[in-house]
Amino acid sequence: MSWVCKMELSESVQRGLQSLADASSFDQSGFQALVDVSFRSLLSARGDPEVLDQPELKQVDQILLKQTHTAAATFILEAVKHNADRSTISSSLEELTFSAERIEIFYCTYQTHKKELGRLLASIGRRTPRINDVSWRLQYHVKNGQVDKVNEPFYLMSLNTENEGSSEDINFTCTMEQLQDLVGKLKDAAKSVEKASQM
């Protein structure tokens, strides 16, 4: 399966990128200008693209220009999201009829802005809370609400979490089996994080 399929680019995005690859729609200076402005518009605090103001793009149809800019920006964000490397980007753009020279221009611009765009994407949305501390207390159920004997231990758990400067306690109860399952999953998660950090 190709990377383009994995990213699930819509047909309109693929068409926009194919237009960008077409030398009759975008000459070399127009191509470079559109690629540059696509990256800059994603990093702009205002978020408004300067596409229509580029002298190299004045001769391009305005609707085509907007469609192509949207497609390029979408592809850039998908590439950053998937942490795409040179071969991945090259093969994806080749499938969309980009020439080797245009792929090189795109990839060099991507490399220049990749880290900054990665930080920008990471800052979007609510972050997962960080667990600062765990406290627990063992309780013992003797009877339930129907006056039946239960005789089973359970744990009162409290996770002290912090998210963007504010702290919050998350409280829950669990049985011994549920606690063992939670500990097992946390160990698996820790191993996964350790492996990912070593790559």
From TrEMBL:
GO biological process: sodium ion transport
Pfam family, one: COMM_HN
Record domain COMM: where: 130-197
Entries under InterPro entries matching the protein: COMM, COMMD3
Domain of life per record: Eukaryota
Membership in a protein family: Belongs to the COMM domain-containing protein 3 family.
Record's protein name: COMM domain-containing protein 3
Taxonomic lineage: Eukaryota, Metazoa, Chordata, Craniata, Vertebrata
